[in-house]
Design brief:
Length: 392
């Protein structure tokens, strides 16, 4: 029974570690990739909507400087987008062409670059380089250095054609966005939209503390409001959470799942520990009677059995940590368990190991078990020395 109780605690601990590692991994990976394709906060025209045909705003250096002075500011960069289609002799694929400039933080794209290089931006000569995803490259049969034709359809002007050279291929595993996003020099998008060099879709702003995104977005709005009288553009501020409410609600629902798993595992471990303790009490009834006959009080005897129970809990936690952390690291570095990206947004189960929740789990579990084990330990009080010693 002691072995069963130890095994139960070990399995429960391993499951709790894996649950928290996967939940935090999902939240971090999905959030990081949504932000990587966009930003924490963006400033766009008030008249812009969810389509790729956006109203331009004029680059305002004073506004960018005001935003840069805000607390927890990381970066700000103008960007431009244009909806189009990549055409090859075999297939055609609709994409969003995103133009980036020299101020754009390309760390996300560099991290997920598979082959080739990022498009050259900001040079004296405008480059016609295009960064595509591995999914798009596979669907259209593209490779680095291939020339591709793009078509751009607009309600206000005739169909435009342009040719680009594929400079690199990236892959984030977030197929919904990988299937749609391509990147190039911002000047290419400005030319295709018929804009001048000072007109852009908007600004992308990054913060150093995502946990305080609401406060940062409010501060950005304040900076926009303070600069409103110097420009004819009417701007609005949007944060990544408000732009993707369903996704972040889905991520928050994972917290409930993790809580349910932890409660169930603690309950199972507790029931098995109660069974183990009661069996131990039955086996040691005569010993308890002798100890109480020698003057040992109920509280002292209960303490002995509580320490015995904690020893079982700590042994189970040790093995649970070894198994749970081992499986989490195996998944993290091998990606053994895959996912359907159409339902989960990612192509493999993400794992993140955080010292904060690991420490809280390893401190909280024995404390909870210690409190709960007080109940079965009270069975010691029912042992009467005169009855147990009579049959010795």
């Amino acid at each position: 029974m002691v072995r069963i109780a130890t095994l139960t605690v070990a399995v429960g601990m391993a499951v709790m570690i894996l649950a928290l590692a996967v939940v935090t991994g999902f939240k971090r990976e999905v959030t990081a990739k949504l932000v990587g394709f966009g930003s924490h906060v963006r400033i766009v025209s008030l008249h812009s909507n969810a389509s790729l045909e956006t109203d331009p705003v004029t680059v305002d250096t004073a506004l960018m400087e005001s935003v840069a002075r805000l607390p927890r500011f990381a970066s700000v960069a103008p960007y431009a987008v244009k909806g189009g289609m990549i055409k090859t002799p075999e297939a055609i694929q609709g994409v969003a062409l995103k133009g980036i400039g020299p101020d754009y933080d390309t760390a996300f794209l560099q991290e997920h670059l598979v082959v080739g290089s990022l498009p050259a931006v900001g040079g004296e000569v405008r480059s016609k380089e295009l960064l595509v995803s591995a999914n798009i490259a596979r669907m259209l049969g593209l490779a680095v250095d291939d020339r591709v034709e793009m078509l751009f359809i607009s309600s206000s002007r005739p169909v435009r054609r342009d040719r680009f050279k594929v400079c690199g291929i990236y892959s984030t595993g977030m197929e919904e966005l990988d299937n749609a996003m391509t990147f190039t020099d911002i000047r290419n998008v400005q030319r295709l939209n018929g804009w001048n060099g000072e007109q852009v879709t908007g600004y992308e702003v990054m913060t150093t503390d995502f946990s305080r995104l609401d406060e940062f977005a409010e501060a950005v709005y304040g900076a926009v409001f303070d600069n409103a009288d110097r420009t004819s553009d009417v701007l609005k501020v949007e944060d990544i959470v408000s732009l993707n409410p369903n996704t972040f609600d889905w991520l928050r629902a994972h917290n409930v799942n993790a809580a349910v798993i932890i409660v169930i595992m603690l309950l199972v471990a507790f029931l098995n520990m109660v069974s183990a303790m009661l069996i131990i009490l039955l086996e040691k009834t005569s010993m308890i009677g002798v100890l109480k006959a020698l003057g040992m009080r109920n509280r002292a005897v209960q303490k002995v059995f509580m320490l015995r129970s904690l020893a079982i809990v700590f042994r189970g936690m040790l093995w649970g940590n070894v198994v749970g952390i081992g499986l989490a690291l195996l998944q993290k570095y091998t990606g053994l368990i895959r996912l359907d990206s159409t339902g989960y947004m990612l192509s493999r189960v993400p794992v993140h190991f955080g010292w904060e929740w690991w420490f809280a789990l390893n401190v909280g579990v024995p404390l909870v078990m210690l409190v709960l084990m007080v109940i079965p330990a009270r069975a010691v009080s029912a042992v009467r020395p005169e009855r147990t010693m009579r049959y010795q």
